[in-house]
Amino acid sequence: MIRTLVLSLALAASSAFAQDLANYNKGLSAYNANDFGEAARLFYEVTNTTTDNDLRNKAEYYLASSFQRANLPFTAFIYFTPIVKQGPSHPYHAKSVEAFIALQETLNDDYLIPSILNNLYDKYADTWATLPLEVLARINYLIGRISHRKALLEDAKQFLEAVPDTSQFYARAQYLLGITLADPRYPAASDEVRKANLDAARVIFENVLKVKTKQLDFADTQHLAMLALGRTNYNVGEYQKAVDWYEKIPRFSKYWDQALFENGFARFQNDDLGGGLGSLQGLYAPQFAGAFQPESWILTSTIYYFSCLYEESKAALVEYENLYLPMAEKLKPLVEGESRDPASYFQLVERTESQELPKAVLNWVRSNERMLGLFGMLHQIEVEKGLIDQNQGWKAAKLANELVTYLDQNKAMLEQVAGTVSRARLVEAYRTIKGFADQAEIIRFEVAKAEKELAEQNVDAAGVLKKQTLYRPKMPAENWNYWKFQGEFWRDEIGYYQYTLKRGCPTSSN
Fold first, then answer.
1. What does the pLDDT read at residue 20?
2. Is this prediction's pTM over 0.70?
3. Which terminus, N or C, of the chain has the lesser number of Cβ atoms within 10 Å?
């Protein structure tokens, strides 16, 4: 009886393995025929029934790969993750890491895949060193970016420097390397070292503009490098160079409004007060309606103050207060009240319209790069749930239920992350408004003090201005025309405004 029972068990095991192998081969045939839905169903069945470790490893990999090829990248990410985490003991570990990199780009994932790779790097660095060069380059870039975000700047520098110039991520890595060196938190033993770091950063940013190999999102990276050159030159006091770089950023680039604002500061510091006001004027065009730019009004008021145009300075502060103080009142209960679940903050910002949030703040939160990535992944989850629901074969095999459960779990987790990021942005917006409200009070005090001093000196402020003549601004070239601004914003004029100012200061030579 014992021998018969053993023989029966052996035959049963052999029969089960034969069935699993048959299903695996059918799955492979479907996979090679681009029928990825049927392939996934068959590979899923094998992973749940086989007791053969080698066959299970193969089925796990091809199951995840079937999802990737079926345009279900988030689902593929879920099924590749345990293979990547298992490490080289899984025969398809290296191929799964390669798939991870491709999925990160497809999903524009700035959180999940980079974090997993970062957490596993020390454990599997030696194994990953044998990966294709472009895959390793992208891993180094992603970990460098996470290190920079965590303010581990020396680590960031080492990872970013490891991205070779043959990689499509080289320009991005170099840009972030420059940002790392220019960061005031980057270790500097002395002022000389700090200056050397800034000079090195400027060279890096300029070299980004000259990269010749094919790069991903190269135009955006170039515009960011120009913005960084403006900032770096501004920080070392070379204001005209800063202006030159800000003005190189193409009109209507997605970074153009930021360039206009920062150029206002650079031109102001370069004693081009009219130019500073001109740069800021572009931000008040209808196309920037709904933008969050509280500091622009503080800078406008400051420029008028330095021109001793006190009424105009006070008017700019009134504009700031009318626009932004009501926003702060609306934000206050959200950031200072009782603690909420992070997901509730995501619910505040997930739609383009909100009854609880000011439009400008909502736009500012939603435009954050990390938020855009999270929105994209959450949208992708919903898309994939819809596609899964349409697959009757997956429903019959109970695969659909498992996929939807995993997707919903990840959706809930991402909503928590998005809520945390949203709350941080709302707190930042509130503190920014309150901080500039304090600066507004300081400017108002200085204006009142200056007006009092003029009155005590019996200075006729109106008379000082009346004696001056306003001239048209200097034309940059012969093919330029001058048009007086009369309250209308024309698309081809935005960004080219130049104020000519009288100066109310009694010592003015105008």
1. 83
2. yes
3. N
